[in-house]
Fold this sequence. Notes:
This protein is of the alpha/beta class and 411 residues long. The protein has 12 helices and 20 strands.
Amino acid sequence: MRRRRRRAAMPAARPPRAAPGWRGRATRAEIDLDALTGNVAALRAVLPPQAALMAVVKANAYGHGAVTIAREALAAGAARLAVATVGEGRALRAAGIAAPVLVLGAIDPTEAAEAIRQQLELTVGTEELLEAVADAACRAEAEQPVAIHVKVDTGLHRYGAKPALALALARRAAANPLLRLAGISSHFATADEPDVSFAAEQAIVLAACAEALRAEGITPETVHAGNSAGSLRRLFTGATVIRPGIALYGIPPSDAVPLPPGVRPVMTVRSRIERVFDLKPGDTVGYGRTYRCERTERALLVPIGYADGYARALSNRGWVGFAGQRAEIIGRVSMDQCVVRAPESVAARVGDEITVFGGAPEEAAPSARGLADLLGTIPYEVLTGVAIRVPRVYVRHGEIVAAEDLNGLTS
Length: 411
Ligand SMILES: *Cc1c(COP(=O)(O)O)cnc(C)c1O
């Protein structure tokens, strides 16, 4: 609030600019490492101090670039990492990251040997997978027991074992010297909704499972259930690990779950104008001629398209920020490019900066959330949808400190 009032009092302040000096493909995702570091600190400040922070970096850290984000999150105070697949875990290990890495979902039994080689912690919710992992552990003659997190299906009805089976799996993991019961876990169905009564029921089931094991003398090393929403709302008070994803990236899980003060978005997608041209009444723009000019207007070509993750559904609906104003998309978004209408009375030149989404409010671009609303989806899909051909440009204290070419196609 204070910032907003100060801004309003200083209308002449120059809008924040893109990090200077980016040389490379015009369309890029700028990743604000100060924001990430601040978000980790701000989340830890409001979360139970005894709970270790497991930074969820699946899906390339929600599109931000897994390796850099993992390193930064660990440096900022995260103790653990989580991914969705064995391949994602391998990429972290290949970069020299030694922190505990949990694979959150089921793996295929044929991946067990590789997962063990990479020293990944595994989530197990079926007998078949527990057996496959135990067999692979036996064959691997690994030096340390393989860390198993037994996943309890407490009502999400996705991956996990019903409580009775989960207890049996936990007993077997605890009794097998090749395995380690590193955790029992669950996942909420409604953590980000206004009504959390079902989540409360789920938490009771998980707590009862942990208690039943303890009564048998089996103590899982960790118990965890909370994603960003569940952790921020403290839906499971017995948590010794929390698993935030979206909040780390500065996006609220939903309207029902505000973020703590100081948390801000990490990613801004920017581009530059490639061509400036005039349209006259009757001219049409793009494939299918879906936009027809009614008066003379100036058009700007932006080199971003649906293959960059900029959805074609934004055709004639979306907008970008240019010179502090909205520039609306005219015609269809094509694979690699789209055209926007220049705001009136703004001079536009080739090479001028465009904010596609994110950035400061003064940049007038939609937020990830705003773009998601336009598309009828959630910001998770907008962030993870930014294609790997878009370079990730890492910025600290306003300076570019690294650029990551995620698949070698960006330059
Ligand atoms: C993705 C995921 C998370 C993180 O969820 P956010 O809503 O992004 O915080 C936590 N736990 C599990 C099991 C997940 O799959």
